[in-house]
Structures are given as C-alpha cells and as structure tokens.
C-alpha cells in the first residue's frame, strides 16, 4: 500500500509539473498578436481555439470578403433549397450569425473583413493590408502568423468564361446570385462543367428542386475521376442519367457561347455539339491559394500547396498554414497530396492554434475520406483507388461485394455495393469505395474503414471489424466484413474472379472469346431475359440444382459463374473445383453491380 501511495503521489506531482509548464508557456504568450489571413474555415477555427487557450492573446482575422466563417460545403444545399436561408450557413448551432460583431463580442477576436493581405515582410514581421473598398493601405505587425488563404477555382482557358450567367461555386455571393436567378425563373437550362463532387451536387440542386434542364460535362470518361474507380463511377453515372441529368463524359467544353447582351447562350463541346443554356456552373476543381506565401519566400510545392510540417509550421517557424492552401501527407501512399475538405481544414486549424500558443500537437495527415449525396444515391471513398494504388507501385487488387445495408428481412433494406482495394503481397487494405442509398449506411462503413486503414489494417482485420448489430441498422455479418472475406479468398487462392471491365468488353464483342459461357445460377425467371437474348452464350442451372447436375456442364468452355451478389457463384466455384471442373471463374460483383452500372447489352 505504501508503495502504491508513493507512486500515486509521484504521478500527481508529475501532472502538477506539466500543468505549471503549460501555464508558464501560455502566460509567456499573453499579449502576443496572432494574425490570421483567411476567414472561412481553418482561420476562424484557429482564432477561436487560440482565444480559449490563451484568452489574453490578441487575435486578428483578415479576409478580403465581407462574408466570413461560412460552411462552403453547404452551398449546393442552399441552392437546392435544403438550406432555406444563406444565413444558416453563417450561423452557429445556437443560431448566432458569425460576423464581425460575433467575433468581437463573443470571441474577442478582431475580424477585418473586406481587407486584402498584399504582402508579408518576414524580417519585420508585418503584413501589408489594403481596404478592398477604398484602396487605403496599412501595416499590421504579428508575433505569429497563420495563413488560411484557402483555394481558388480553376477557370478553363476557353472563350466566354467572363459572360454574364457563368458562375463558379466558390463563395456565398455567387451562391446567392445563382439561387436568385433560378428563383426568378431566369434559368430554364443549365450546363455544369465538371464531374467532381461540386459539379454533381450542383447538377442535383438544379434538377431536383427547381426542375432546370441540366447537362453535366466531364473531360474524363467517368464521374469523380481520381476518387472512384470505373464500376462505382458507372453506377453513379447511370443513376444521374435515370434522374434526367444529361451526361457528356469524355468531352470537354471548347467555348461558352454568347447570346444577347453578353449573356451566356450555350456551351460548345469538343465534339462540335452545342448545349443551349441560360446558366453555366464551372466546377472544374480548385487550386491552393498560395501566392502570398510564395512571394514571401515560403516553401511552396510544385503543385502549389504550401509545405508544412506536422505542427502546421511553414518553412518560417513563426508562420503557420492550414486549410485548403496546404499539402498534407497521405497516410497510405506516404506522399504529399492536396485535400481541400472542410473537415480537414478545421482539424488543421486547431492543430496550428495549439502550436501557436505552445501546446505541442501534431497533424499526421489524412487518407482523403469522401462522401456525397446524388439524388437517391450516396457515393463514398476512403484511401486509395485501385488506379492510384497501382500507380503507387502496390500489388493491388479489389474485392467487389453487394450486401444488404441492414438485415435482408427488414423492410427498408437496400443493397450496399463496396469495392475493397488491397495489396496482395502485404494483405494491407489500401482503400474502400461504395455506392448505397441516400442514408447513413454507407457513411458508417466508410468511417469504420477510414479508422482501420489509417491504423494499417489488413484484409483479415476487416473480416473481424466489430460493427454494432441490430436488424434495423446492419447485418449480423456486416458488409465491411464480407468485403474482407472476399479479399482473403482472392489472396489465398480460394477464389478466381473476372473483372467487370473484362466481362463488359466481352459482352460488347462476344466473338472475342468464343469459348466462354455464362453459367447463371439464379432463379430461371431472373435468367430468362438473358437466355432469350444471348441463346447459347447463356446457360441457366439454378444454384440448388448444381450439386445434382454438374455432370451436365460442358467441359470445353470456360464457365463465367453469374449470380446476384457473387456469394453463390463462389460456392459453386468451390464445388466445381472439387469435382475437377476447374475451367470456371466468378464474375465479380454479379448482377447487383451490373444492373446499377447499366449497359446497352442488358436485356430490356
């Protein structure tokens, strides 16, 4: 007991000592002036954190806009009407508007709006400012400086980008004007240029609530390039098409065509086709706003992001940077990458604030977790795509699974399609992608995967991830576990799969592989349309009959085993292998994937 008491006293004294050290550090910084350039996400988060930790610090936030501290990711939902008033994007959870008055009276932070930072003098530790309205200049000194300058939209170098009616989705002013024009009935047709997250969300906003005839143009051959791989992107594209959004994939905008009074009248595509419209939304991506840092001599990468360490310090130890202007480490690939996400900006702002006031805190990086809603679908990813993993040199492969998002007998169950990306050599999971209904089901799996992947989880770990179970929420063997099981079977050689890309190519040109035959193990009613269309290429032998009738199967064909989800196909593959009929392969994903991806060759 005496030993325990002594150990407890030592532990308590150590805590007191740590507390005294932190207090000294905080008091040392009392009265320091912290200048923050940028007032949307990372900047305000850092400012408020600094004041909580060091209430006597002088904190100044500078932004060239009149509107600050708003939820930029909510702009598409404001345009759509899901968020009724733009002030909701600029308000706290307790409905206080985040403006100059709020920051002054509630936070004791000075917010200098409509003020542009012109240059940084690192030797004198000053920032030259300019009043946007009057042009008047002044200089403000700093003890510590935080750059939270955010991002800027990429403007296509094509004629017509300056026409009236052409918008980027970058700030509240543009969002307010877009919604005002639509509400006044001035927009009957719109073209969205860019098939990334903002482009998809804006296309939904225009079409779903307002009924605007909407076209979406994407230079690459799929939606969400560099985020989703082709099967998932194809499902999303098919759903957008089903909702009457006209997609032009693999096409670029060559010119924005002028009509009367220099107002937009259309978009001419690289194919020569012109899409008539009253409004153009240019959502072609963003770039780090790092010019101020570069001109100040700070280290900026070749891709334009400000280079920071784990404490969000730049190459000048008195200057920090956070948010959409920085590059961060990717925790799977190990390389720096650009991730302009509001969630990360807030985390980075908090870490920068801690270090500014002397509390050692680190931001290790991220893996790019992402989710969006598109009409009745949700699409999400975390970690590396297959394409990215292969480019990084991993021995990458995928498992495709389609499981129920809750108990199959529960009335609201929906199919959850997942693609798990893994490294065959190390068994490490590299990424997860999914398409599901517009609920929280996909989010739960992506979030669980993000934590596991960050921790270096293997496919075996994924098979054992514990997910909360109750029939209204999940299945006893969760969808994320099933993805891990299939990956285990592939790595260990128990399963051989055919990629959907190869199957699609064959269906579009069946003469390319005359020795292939589809073995459809579904119910005869499900197989009938395919058999009627494809005749001798499609053989139906129901799952429950294969064990008794496998001797009837041809031995001179490669059997492509086909079911809804792939689980029955795998079981049949194991059976056929056991009796010496090894000329077979499982179609990854099965019909659940194919019917959501769509194809001209599918039976009507």
UniProtKB/TrEMBL annotation:
It comes from the Bacteria. Keywords: FAD, Flavoprotein, Membrane, Oxidoreductase, Redox-active center, Transmembrane, Transmembrane helix. One of its GO terms (molecular function) is oxidoreductase activity. Residues 512-602 form the Rhodanese domain. The chain crosses the membrane at residues 6-26. PROSITE patterns: RHODANESE_3. It holds the Pfam family Pyr_redox_dim. Its cofactor is FAD. Belongs to the class-III pyridine nucleotide-disulfide oxidoreductase family. PANTHER family: NAD(P)H SULFUR OXIDOREDUCTASE (COA-DEPENDENT) (PTHR43429:SF1), PYRIDINE NUCLEOTIDE-DISULFIDE OXIDOREDUCTASE DOMAIN-CONTAINING (PTHR43429). This is Related to NADH oxidase. It comes from Desulfotalea psychrophila (strain LSv54 / DSM 12343).
